[in-house]
Amino acid sequence: MIMSRVGTVIIGRNEGERLVRCLKSLTGQVTQLVYVDSGSTDDSVNVARGMGADVVALDMTTPFTAARARNEGFEQMRRLYPQAEYVQFVDGDCEIVNGWLDNAVAFLDQHPEVAVVCGRRRERFSEKTIYNMLCDMEWDTPVGETKACGGDVLMRVDAFENVFGFRPDLIAGEEPELCVRLRAAGWKIWRLDQEMTLHDAAMTKFSQWWKRNIRAGYAFAEGSFLHGAPPERHWVKESRRCLIWGLVIPVIAISAGFFCWRYGLIVALIYPLQIFRLWLKNRKELKPHPWLFASFNVLGKFAEMYGQLRFHYCRLLGRVEQLIEYK
């Protein structure tokens, strides 16, 4: 039985039926539930309490981040359940797949060098919109030892405490940043070939997808700023891609167009060529909807570039950026 060994920290705001599904998915698997609410105006707090979770209501006078919410939830979990060896972090819009916790705990028991284990996050309604579908494809990452995890993850309690948890000031990319510090401390991160959670992105508009990519670009910029030095080079490559595709090539194309519109057009043709290259790559890897993934991958670089500019603008002015939310 893993019930006494695993504490669960759920974070959310105005999740409604998604939170109900999340809590139901944990029924019978764990009894040590902590729900962290970040200013919900619906009935989330009462629902969570009614379903057996201990509730932490964040003080919203302090800037909210998911990292801060997870840290405060973890602290409460440790106070209530000091015997817990592992902590499962999960977002309130996700459901834990039956069997995940048993297999994940067994893996960590057998691999003491691994601090973090995650599985495949799937989009619950992937066929509902192309944006949900893109999320599902994005999360189809290689299994085995890896560098980072996402927000749904099982961690060793002692490893999490030894690196002092998440950086509470990060508005995005807090999980990979934590993994950088865990790996620097000698721990390994592992992704299992197993479904872990079902996620409800609820993305129905292009603007939501665009904001999500802005947040990714912001995370790339901040991650490379914090840990971009050798040997880690955290998100340096991703940041350079944003710079090249989202800024450098457009500037060259526009500059060339001032001399001759044909020159500008020739430079701009690199974008359809890149889409074609990515299509070939994804087709060879047998990924679904290769044209869709390739096209949006290239388009997303412009939003990511804007996110990078936002980070550096705020850093230079000493401003605290607000949370970038897409729903």
Topology:
Blueprint lengths: L5 E7 L4 H10 L6 E5 L6 H7 L3 E4 L8 H15 L5 E6 L2 E3 L3 H11 L3 E10 L6 H9 L5 E3 L6 E4 H6 L11 H11 L3 E12 L6 H22 L8 H24 L1 H8 L1 H15 L5 H28 L10
Parallel strand pairs: 1-2, 1-4, 2-3, 6-9
Antiparallel strand pairs: 4-8, 5-9, 6-8, 7-9
Descriptive report:
With 327 residues, the protein is of the alpha/beta class. The protein folds into two domains: 6-204, Alpha-Beta Complex (Spore Coat Polysaccharide Biosynthesis Protein SpsA, Chain A); 227-317, no CATH class. Helix content is 51%, strand content 17%. The chain contains twelve helices and nine strands. It has helices spanning 17-26, 44-50, 66-80, 100-110, 130-138, 157-162, 174-184, 206-227, 236-259, 261-268, 270-284, 290-317, and strands at 6-12, 33-37, 54-57, 86-91, 94-96, 114-123, 144-146, 153-156, 188-199. Strands 1, 2, 3, 4, 5, 6, 7, 8 and 9 form a nine-stranded mixed sheet that branches. Helix 1 (17-26) links the parallel strand 1 (6-12) and strand 2 (33-37). Helix 8 packs across helix 9 and helix 11 (270-284) crosses helix 12 (290-317). The longest helix is centred in the last third of the chain and has 28 residues, at 290-317. The protein is globular. The chain starts with 5 loop residues before the first strand and ends in a 10-residue tail after the last helix. The mean pLDDT is 94.
